Amino acid sequence: MMTDSRPARGVGGPAYAGGMATKRAPAPAFVCSECGWTSPKWVGRCGECQQWNTVVEAAAPDAARRVAPMIPTSSARPITSIDTSETPRRASGVGEFDRVLGGGIVPGAAILLSGEPGVGKSTLLLEVAARSAREGRRVLYVSAEESPGQVRLRAERTGALHDELFLASETDLAKILGHVDAVKPSLLVVDSVQTVSSSLNDGAAGMPGQVREVASTLIRVAKERDLPVILVGHVTKDGQVAGPRLLEHLVDVVCHFEGDRQTSLRFIRALKNRFGAADEVGCFEMAGDGIVEVPDPSALFLSHGTPEPGTCIAIALEGRRALPVEVQALAVPTTAANPRRVVNGLDPSRVAMVLAVLEMRAGVKTSQLDVYVSTVGGVRFTEPAADLAIAIAVAGFVRGHAVARSVAAVGELSLAGEVRPVTQGAQRRAEAGRLGYRSVVDDGAGSLRAALEEIRARHTA
Question: Could you list the residue range(s) of the whole structural domain that residue 361 is in?
Answer without folding.
Answer: 299-458
